[in-house]
Write a structure and sequence with these properties.
The complex is a heterodimer of chains A (439) and B (456).
Chain A lengths: L1 H5 L1 H12 L3 H4 L7 E4 L5 E6 L5 E9 L12 H8 L6 H10 L2 E6 L3 E9 L3 H13 L5 H20 L1 H13 L13 H6 L2 H11 L5 E7 L3 H11 L23 E5 L4 E10 L5 H16 L7 H5 L4 E11 L2 E11 L3 H18 L3 H17 L4 H13 L3 H5 L2 H7 L2 H11 L6 E6 L5
Chain B lengths: L12 H12 L6 E4 L5 E6 L5 E8 L13 H11 L7 H10 L3 E6 L4 E8 L3 H13 L5 H20 L1 H13 L13 H6 L2 H11 L5 E7 L3 H12 L22 E7 L4 E9 L7 H12 L19 E9 L2 E10 L4 H14 L21 H16 L3 H17 L14 H11 L6 E7 L8
Parallel strand pairs in B: 2-6, 7-11
Antiparallel strand pairs in B: 1-2, 3-5, 3-6, 4-5, 8-10, 8-11, 9-10
Classes of the chains: A alpha+beta (439), B alpha+beta (456).
Chain lengths: 439, 456
């Protein structure tokens, strides 16, 4: 299950592309979004779903942790956290009593706020949350509390080997750029962030041109449109942010080691995917490669478990950032077998690089990738997040048009040519996190 | 991708909710029946994504392993999942599963083993055949047996590195000391090493009969059509008497237990584990509401401990496990190591206060009503919301239905399966007094290396 979650981002992008196809081409599922624009210029999408009486409203905040100024890393995370701090305790009580819930997540290129409630409470829930998002209380007490919490999240990121691996990859491949730091910042950067910094960040991020809303509900479209239009009218007009440019590190290290006193080591190989190719070109290839290498029983990495008894846990994931795409394969193996694990990963990649895939394996990979798209589109929360995440990556609807058709029309020869360039041993980084890493 | 401030929900939420969600079913569409060979079946037509979910719950859990730490039931689960069948090799099975785009998984807990298969709707018949093959037509080889022993050894090592999972497992083992529920879910290295093929084949023969299982199919199509497909796939299986088992109820701990464990982490993970109402017990619904009040939603009651800034809780999750012969509440808090000891004291104070807490606005005088939180109403609405979300995922729904029905054979539910609107603040205080106030419990701290003493 966890492996499936790790590839969600790429699958999300793929499914969003699918969403934009004509109904006749993709069948009756997923249902189509309809779009509308509020008077302040804020764009919104509506999706009807009758399987449950709950509503999901998601707010895309363009920019992401990439917007953090140098020396102020963590600023965007802090801003996103503060806009969901409801200052009036009576209103907090009311939200609790309705059972409504909300949370936010932050990526390199965008933030996403998710609000989930029973549909009968949709208007009342937004009535409480939207004004605070538009005009949060930036008190010193609240700012310090969030900073403390972010320090804890920095530790948590450090304690989870896979989270640590993702951060290490971003730091190594995008060192010195806005894409190469933790969204939670560090002790010094959090200390440096002032109330004025947060106010400026909020003004830039929470204006109509920088936000996009998606609502999925069993309520009919006119009712939802009316509620969204009324509740999101409070946001000031303004343009989308322009993220600072960032280029990948031309000379990333060949090797990274981090000592962790555990029973097992994470052994990984990572590389840039697609080189100078635009991000959009890498997304579909990344999904197919992820599925081929690390998605479940029968994938290429499955051999580490079924034939070489090296591991229970293995996986592959790609990191799609607007700065570029990264790809990583990993295995978690017992202390003392790290060298064996690394050799096994190298062999799998070398075999794929040299020999490619045959028709049967390629067809199964395509089938599995498409089936995973369906599994990732069952809930309203998943469905409404998809277009926003793609938008947040900067790919947009134009990129999406015809994407699913291209997935199905990718030939084995084309894919093998891609493998031949993407899996070249040059430019790879080998990572060890665990007891076998040098101190 | 990680949400920043989201509460972790119990992975068994579906099981707990299902008793209530049952009432919300469009009953006229769902169909329940039992085949002549004893296999109990529910078919659930569903709209939405063109997917089908097949779930099969079997009445065998780690409680049925007669050696503590044996891990044989878990090993058997692995072999059914990825071993050869009467018809073909493991490699052929896996290739076929992949070629159909299927997601295929299995889980073993104290009471049950469940198998889940999710696949595009056009492969519905194939999914049923594949489930039958995996569970009822398995013939794992000696080589597969040997390989899976090594895989499980790696899984056990992986669990040991994970503070949340290892802490939960160790605390539950201590809570259920002397009862088969104390067997570690994954087994231990020595037990796995000692397991034999003959033992596993005996377990397989004894427990994997249609009469000891519940099958749930959720997917597009009319109920009659789904029923016909199930009959075609499963009616040919031979019946066999279900296994007979007698098992005592797990006793609450006779004394408090304190365990300190260390890992290479920077935060401390604190576990407070209490005995709780078992499956089918009349207190289960009220206890579940209390768990929601304590640890779910926007401002759970346990979060109040953070009112002292130095005792801030960085993460929190609550799991309520209503097992057949005993229940458990696992409270997991993440904090800075230096706060571990004080947090324990604060938690004891808070849990003691729950037996006199005002959960509902109705508990207050008129002048105060506008300034208080109605925790009882909040919990009921959280549950209503979860029940709605539950309708959106076929696999979870199918598995939860199967579990609920199979556990219900051993312990028919004493509580009403309807939504517990009638539960009152008085009832919650009674439940808190019965299960939490002053009760013996297991406290376990997973501490960073070198900081073990800060827990004491």
């Amino acid at each position: 299950m966890k492996r499936a979650e790790k590839i969600a981002a790429a699958l999300v992008a793929l499914l969003v592309c699918w969403l934009h196809l004509p109904t006749a081409e993709r069948g009756p599922w997923p249902p189509r979004f309809s779009s509308f624009t509020l008077s302040n210029g804020l764009e919104a999408d509506y999706l009807q779903g009758k399987t449950s009486a709950l509503s999901v409203v998601q707010v895309l905040v363009r920019g992401g942790s990439r917007m953090d100024p140098a020396g102020r890393e963590g600023l965007t995370c802090l801003t996103l956290s503060l806009v969901l701090q409801i200052p009036d305790s009576t209103l907090v009580h009311r939200l609790m009593e309705m059972g409504s819930t909300y949370y936010q997540s932050l990526e390199n290129d965008y933030g996403l706020i998710t609000i989930v409630c029973q549909s009968r409470f949709l208007d009342e829930t937004l009535k409480i949350i939207c004004p605070v998002m538009a005009d949060p209380l930036l008190s010193g007490l609240r700012i310090n509390a969030i900073k403390d919490h972010m320090k804890a999240l920095q530790k948590s990121e450090n304690d989870q080997p896979l989270d640590r691996l993702r951060l290490l990859l971003a730091q190594a491949f995008f060192a010195g750029t806005p894409c190469g730091h933790s969204a939670y910042g560090n002790a010094d950067s959090l200390k440096a962030i002032t109330r004025d910094d947060i106010a400026a960040s909020h003004r830039a991020l929470f204006c109509s041109g920088n936000l996009k809303v998606a609502a999925a509900s069993d309520l009919d479209e006119p009712a939802v449109r009316e509620i969204i239009s009324r509740r999101f009218a409070a946001f000031a007009s303004g343009p989308a942010v322009a993220p600072p440019p960032a280029a990948a590190n031309a000379n990333p290290p060949k090797e990274l080691n981090q000592r962790l006193e555990q029973k097992q080591s994470h052994i990984a190989i990572a590389w840039r995917l697609g080189g100078a190719e635009p991000l959009g070109a890498n997304v579909i290839r990344g999904v197919l490669l992820e599925t081929l290498l690390g998605q479940g029983a029968g994938s290429r990495l499955w051999a580490l478990r079924s034939r070489q008894d090296l591991a229970y846990a293995f996986g592959a994931f790609d990191l799609n950032l607007s700065c570029g795409s990264l790809f990583c394969v990993y295995v978690k193996t017992e202390s003392g077998r790290g060298g064996e694990g690394l050799a096994a990963l190298r062999n799998i990649l070398a075999d794929l690089w040299q020999n490619g895939v045959d028709e049967g394996e390629f067809a199964a990979t395509q089938t599995m990738a498409e089936a995973d798209l369906l599994r990732r589109s069952e809930s309203k929360e998943q469905l409404s997040a998809l277009p926003l995440r793609l938008e947040g990556l900067g790919l947009g609807a134009a990129f999406a048009d015809g994407f699913a058709s291209r997935l199905r029309s990718v030939s084995r020869e084309e894919f093998n040519a891609f493998l031949r360039s993407a899996l070249s041993p040059e430019g790879r980084m080998e990572i060890t996190i665990g007891p076998e890493a040098a101190k | 991708m990680r949400p920043m401030f989201r509460q972790t929900r119990s992975c068994l939420a579906g099981l707990i909710l299902f008793g209530w969600a049952l009432i919300g079913w469009p009953q006229e569409q769902s169909r329940s029946f039992t085949l002549e060979n004893g296999l109990q079946v529910v078919v659930r037509p569903s709209s939405g994504a063109p997917l089908v979910a097949v779930s099969l719950a079997c009445g065998i859990g780690v409680r049925d392993d007669d050696r503590s730490g044996g891990g044989r039931v878990h090993l058997l689960e692995h072999l059914l999942l990825v071993g050869s069948s009467l018809r073909r090799s493991a490699a052929e099975r896996i290739r076929d599963i992949r070629g159909h785009g299927a997601q295929y998984n299995a889980h073993t807990d104290q009471d049950l083993m469940t198998f889940e298969l999710s696949v595009p709707a056009e492969a519905q018949s194939w999914a049923l055949e594949t489930m039958r093959e995996a569970v009822f037509e398995n013939r794992f080889t000696d080589a597969e047996f040997a390989n899976e022993k090594r895989v499980i050894a790696a899984e056990i090592a992986q669990l040991a590195d994970d503070p949340q999972r290892s802490g939960t497992n160790l605390a539950l083992q201590r809570l259920f000391t002397g009862h088969p529920y104390s067997h570690p879910l994954a087994g231990d290295a020595a037990g796995i090493s000692a397991a034999t093929v003959a033992e596993l084949r005996t377990l397989y023969g004894d427990y994997f009969s249609p009469g000891n299982c519940v099958l749930v199919l959720a997917g597009p199509g009319a109920a009659a059509e789904l029923e016909a497909q199930v009959r075609e796939a499963f009616a040919g299986l031979k019946s066999q008497p279900p296994p007979q088992r007698t098992m005592s109820e797990a006793s609450p701990p006779g004394s408090d237990a304190e365990i300190v464990h260390s890992l290479d982490v920077t935060q401390s993970h604190l576990f407070f584990v209490f005995a709780a109402p078992p499956f089918g017990h009349g207190d289960r619904s009220a206890f579940d509401i209390l768990v929601h009040i304590l640890g779910h939603g926007l401002n759970p009651l346990l979060g109040g401990i953070s009112r002292h800034r130095e005792l801030v809780i960085h993460g929190m999750s609550l799991r309520y496990l209503p097992l057949v012969h005993g229940g458990a509440l696992v409270i997991h808090l993440v904090s800075d190591p230096e706060n571990a000891h004080f947090l324990k004291k604060e938690m004891e104070k808070l849990l003691d206060s729950l037996a006199r807490f005002n959960y509902s606005r109705a508990d207050f005088q008129a002048a105060e009503k506008n300034y208080v939180t109605d925790f009882l109403e909040a919990a009921k609405n959280q549950i209503r919301l979860s029940m709605e979300a539950f309708q959106e995922g076929r696999s979870n729904m199918a598995t939860s239905i199967g579990r609920y029905l199979l556990l219900g054979r051993e312990k028919p539910a004493a509580e009403s399966p309807s939504f517990p609107d009638g539960i009152t603040s008085d009832e919650l205080r009674r439940i808190a007094g019965r299960y939490l106030k002053g009760k013996k419990y297991v406290w376990l701290a997973v501490m960073p290396l070198g900081k073990e003493n800060e827990a004491r």
